[in-house]
Amino acid sequence: MKYYLEITLLPNPVINLLTLWSKVFQQIHLGLVEMQDNQKRVPIGVSFPEYIIGEKYSVLGGKLRLFAQEETTLARLDAPKWLSRLSDYVHCTGIRSVPEKLNGYAIFQREQPKISKERLARRYASRHGIDYDSALLRYSEMAHKLIPTPFIRLKSLSSDNTFCLWIRKIAVTEPSSNTFSSYGLSATSTVPEF
């Protein structure tokens, strides 16, 4: 990845950071969907430079970076256009070259923890054709599990359901391939850290 642009979420008393993340990431996701190839791969990856991993919880911070191999790829995305209705709440830099001195690389991937009794029961009920209450009994003994991974709450435009996009960071020493999902995430592709 040779080029990037950075989006900073601006502190604001009107809208909290979690709500702002939802609005910003929804717009970036829509822009990335427009750039998918026929195998649903995207040439732009995301990183969260202020991501902090803790034992009990982690945070995304207030910055988002978009990376691409070519400057024209980021120009084609046109992130400021996608974020225009949020211009009072975000600052978007121009396209810049990635610095030569890096701290390493990271993989930002989607994590789908199976923690919610309710979610598991809904899924079980729909798969096995039983009612929700019966399915919930199946998981009644399940202990509550705290997931420290940070997330962004998004709304599916196809199903109108709200869901959490859990984002896990893995630090690595070597770069790897450059294709990502329509969320800019990947289980194998890296982005530079600086």
Structural summary, described in words:
The protein is of the alpha+beta class and 194 residues long. Helix content is 25%, strand content 25%. The chain has 5 helices and 9 strands, in the order βαββααβββααβββ. It has helices spanning 17-34, 71-77, 79-82, 117-128, 132-138; strands at 3-9, 44-47, 63-68, 90-92, 96-97, 104-111, 151-155, 162-172, 191-193. The strands form 2 sheets. Strands 1, 2, 3, 4 and 5 form a 5-stranded antiparallel β-sheet that branches. It has a 4-stranded antiparallel β-sheet with strand order 7-8-6-9. A hairpin with a 6-residue loop joins β7 (151-155) and β8 (162-172). α4 (117-128) packs across α5 (132-138).
Helix and strand sequence: EHEEHHEEEHHEEE
Q: Which structural category do the helix and sheet elements fall into? A: alpha+beta
Largest sheet descriptor: 5 strands, antiparallel
How much is the average pLDDT? 90
Kindly provide the radius of gyration, computed on alpha-carbon positions and rounded to a whole number of angstroms. Answer: 18 Å
Number of strands: 9
Looking at how many chains there are and whether they match, the oligomeric state comes to single chain
Contiguous runs where pLDDT drops below 50 for at least 5 residues: none
**First and last CA, distance:** 12 Å
Helix content: 10-25%
Strand content bin: 25-35%
- Estimate the global geometry from the Cα principal axes: globular
In DSSP terms, counting alpha (H) and pi (I) runs of 4 or more, how many helices?
5
